[in-house]
Design a protein that fits this description.
Layout: E1 19-30, E2 33-44, E3 48-52, H1 59-66, E4 74-79, E5 93-96, H2 108-116, H3 125-131, H4 147-157, E6 165-169, H5 177-192, E7 196-200, H6 204-210, E8 213-218, E9 221-226, H7 228-232, E10 238-243, E11 254-258, E12 261-266, H8 269-279, E13 284-290, H9 293-310, H10 328-331
Parallel strand pairs: 3-7, 3-8, 5-6, 6-7
Antiparallel strand pairs: 1-2, 1-4, 8-9, 10-12, 10-13, 11-12
Helix pairs in contact: 2-3
Bound molecules: adenosine-5'-triphosphate.
Protein name: ABC transporter ATP-binding protein
Domain ABC transporter: 21-244
Membrane topology: Peripheral membrane protein
């Protein structure tokens, strides 16, 4: 599986104009649990958006609202400019929920045909199966597939109807490294052909590899909404790695040592390196690097937790202060 055939290109005449998804102040409660709280988000055509957040952050709930499986308890949700629970709004949508059940006695090819039967111009079954590395399994009953093969099929089904937008909830969970990379390539190919993607993931490297926009949610609220670079900059410090007999004392903000390996954190690493050289401490294997997405993610979500702990009287509706202001304007 390499590139998506041109037949996968979205047919939407309004691509690039209206957002395909729009939420305004959307909230969803399950009894006392506030799963989503005041989320406003636009997803324009052609964007590949990664939704990140710890367990229970509200990611799946958001996707369920977007595809009309659940209704919001406050605020509004639009899919292609309509209410997502209207069947017509979903004709240009493909989804893979976090958990999918496949009819165990149907063959892989039959499942694809059943899904294709719901669309006027589906991608031919052979093409979909080829793209997701399932061509050899076409005649296998789904009950006999491995967990990873089932997951690949579940994700493939989202693309059968030639959708303009796909919502993928943890698409690569349970896949081995090779299968994960193949699936990334299929998603990238769809995106290159003009498709719009919203995916959730616990794999930060997945979001780093795929997404052009990252939205971090926690406790049902958007904490950061921006490019990968903007999310990384939520951690202002940069890091210098080196090897030396002892950690050099050059006034770093934070030093993490493991044997002769040391990590020195500072806002101005150029200045830190100058001090290091002037200090004359012997060192080797010097590396300067920005914070990784993982470090930014942990910093942002733990800051939100600390904000909650600081104020026990605060209610969920005013929980986490965004670390950077949401930047929907940029994506209109
Ligand atoms: N049907 C439900 N009934 C009650 N509470 C629910 C229901 N669905 C979700 N929740 C709660 O809503 C919150 C958000 O859950 P959600 O599944 O949206 O999070 P998530 O970010 O997708 O988590 P994960 O990464 O673990 O899949 C959690 O506290 C969860 O327990």
């Amino acid at each position: 599986m390499t590139t998506a055939p041109s037949t996968t290109a979205p047919t939407s005449a309004d691509a690039g104009r209206e957002p395909l998804v729009r939420t305004r102040g959307v909230g969803r409660r399950y009894g006392e649990v506030v799963a989503l709280d005041d989320v406003s988000l636009d997803v324009p055509a052609g964007q590949l958006l990664g939704l990140l957040g710890p367990n229970g952050a509200g990611k799946s709930t958001l996707l369920q609202l977007l595809c009309g499986l659940r209704r919001p308890t406050s605020g509004s949700v639009e899919l292609f400019g309509r209410a997502p629970w209207e069947p017509g709004a979903r004709s240009r949508l493909g989804t893979t929920p976090q958990e999918t059940g496949l009819p165990p006695t149907l063959r892989v090819g039959e499942v694809v045909d059943v899904v294709a039967g719901h669309f006027t111009d589906p991608v031919p079954a052979g093409e979909v199966l080829e793209r997701f590395g399932l061509a050899d399994l076409r005649r296998r009953q789904t009950g006999g597939l491995s967990g990873g093969q089932k997951r690949r099929l579940a994700v493939a089904l989202a693309f059968v109807g030639r959708p303009d937008l796909v919502l993928l909830d943890e698409p690569t969970t349970g896949l081995d490294t090779g299968a994960r990379h193949d699936l990334w390539e299929a998603v990238r190919a769809y995106h290159r052909s003009g498709g719009t993607v919203v995916l959730t993931s616990h794999y930060l490297e997945e979001v780093e590899a795929l997404a052009e926009r990252v939205v971090v949610v926690d406790h049902g609220r958007v904490l950061v909404d921006g490019t990968l670079e903007e999310v990384r900059s939520a951690v202002p410090a940069r890091r210098v790695r080196l090897r030396a007999a002892t950690a050099p004392d050059v006034g770093a903000d934070r030093v993490v040592s493991d044997g002769d390996r040391h990590e020195l954190w500072a806002a101005d690493t150029d200045d830190l390196v100058r001090r290091l050289v002037r200090g004359g401490t012997p060192f080797r294997e010097l590396e300067v690097a920005p914070a990784s997405l993982e470090e930014a993610f942990l910093a942002v979500t733990s800051r939100a937790d600390a904000a909650e702990d600081d104020d026990v009287t605060r209610t969920r509706t005013s929980a986490a202060t965004p670390v950077t202001a949401p930047t929907q304007e940029r994506y209109r």
